[in-house]
Amino acid sequence: MGRTGLSGWAATPAHPPGTGRSGSLVGIPGRAVRLCQGVGGATVILLLNGIGMGLRPATGPRPDLAPSRLAALVELAAHGPLRIGELAARMNITLSTTSRMVDLLDGSGWITRRPDPADQRASLISPNAAGRALLDAVRRETAGVLAEELGRLAPGRRRQLHDALPALEELTEALRRRPAPRRPGNGRP
Asked: Staple 89 to which of 144, 168, 178, 180, CB 3.0 to 4.6 Å?
């Protein structure tokens, strides 16, 4: 699901070619949509976005746990410790936005900053015990919600999802191996 998930991508209904109905995806370049349509990629993107939106944490009032902050914690847990510039590049957001987000994560008590041994002027950021506990709670909650909804599907539909898992795992691994996109202002040259 990209490097930070697909939340934030809006769409109008997309219809298969040849149906005489048109559809477009807002925020996805046309060429990418055309390339994906052959394998249902645009549909996959919309479906994963819908699943992600439905699985947003609801573990009580947490005004300080915006989706972007959760995404940053997930990146730090999976790939940290990271410098702010590295986190910005992984999330494909600007360095200044990432710096503010890291300050908010720090203020919430979810990360640890320590000097980078390679450059004492820089800091390495990683989730602390409270941040890891938060991620565990969110994962438990989202897994419970997903299990509940999967349990409502007909057995044949659950089997179809199960059969698709190897292809989705392969796609996920291929996307994880891709380098973070380069973008001016996100800490990447």
From this structure: 180
58 burial via Cβ count (<10 Å: 0-12, 13-18, 19+): exposed
Instruction: Tell me the average pLDDT across 169-186.
Output: 71
The domain ranges of the chain are: 1-54, 63-189
Q: State the average pLDDT over residues 151-179.
A: 86
* HSE, side-chain direction, 13 A CA sphere, residue 179: 4
- Asked if 143 and 93 count as a contact pair (C-beta separation under 8 A), the reply is no
What CATH number does the domain located at 63-189 have? Answer: 1.10.10.10
124 contacts 115 by C-beta, under 8 angstroms: yes
**Per the structure block, which two tokens stand in for 10?**
């809006």
Task: Supply the pTM of this predicted model.
Answer: 0.64
Contact (CB, 8 A) for 71 and 97 = no
Does residue 70 carry a pLDDT above 80?
A: yes
Over residues 36-43, the mean pLDDT reads: 60
